[in-house]
Design goal:
Layout: H1 19-41, E1 62-68, E2 75-79, E3 82-84, H2 86-98, E4 105-110, H3 116-128, E5 133-136
Parallel strand pairs: 1-4, 4-5
Antiparallel strand pairs: 1-2, 2-3
């Protein structure tokens, strides 16, 4: 209770009780922490490759490169530097998983002219084969 317990009733109350303010702030903090866990759980988890403000990724046995030729618009898929296709990509991932490698990560590099849908399709193929960690390769801005 703010104020003095005895004395004149004409005295000015010069104390401020901050307990209710602290209680409200703690309640807001708990609500914020609970709601952010739901927001993060529904988002797409992406391990970013090295960039000016990013962390470095570990070497990967699944390096996917998707190119689009400027002149013809032909689309090419490369797996670890060799020309490939979706069937070979799936087979390679199954083979690597059968060898017992754990905590696999795929690194996907795509031309900036590649469509968003094509990159999402590659991510989907990798995730369907059981690799949940992947990185999108970008050019460093620094």
């Amino acid at each position: 209770m703010a104020g003095k317990s005895g004395g004149d009733s004409d005295d000015v109350i010069s104390d401020i009780n901050v307990t209710p303010l602290v209680d409200i702030m703690l309640c807001l903090l708990v609500i914020f922490m609970v709601t952010t866990s739901y927001v993060v759980a529904d988002s797409l988890k992406v391990d970013l490759p090295e960039a000016a403000t990013g962390d470095s990724t570990e070497p990967s046995v699944v390096m996917i490169t998707f190119t689009v030729e400027k002149d013809t618009g032909a689309r090419q898929l490369f797996l670890n530097g060799e020309k490939s296709d979706e069937t070979k990509l799936r087979a390679h991932i199954k083979k690597v998983k059968a060898e017992g490698k754990k905590d696999l990560q795929a690194v996907i590099a795509a031309d900036k002219t590649a469509s968003h849908g094509e990159v999402i399709h590659l991510i989907d193929v990798v995730k369907q084969e059981g690799i949940v960690k992947f990185a999108l390769n970008i050019e460093s801005g620094a």
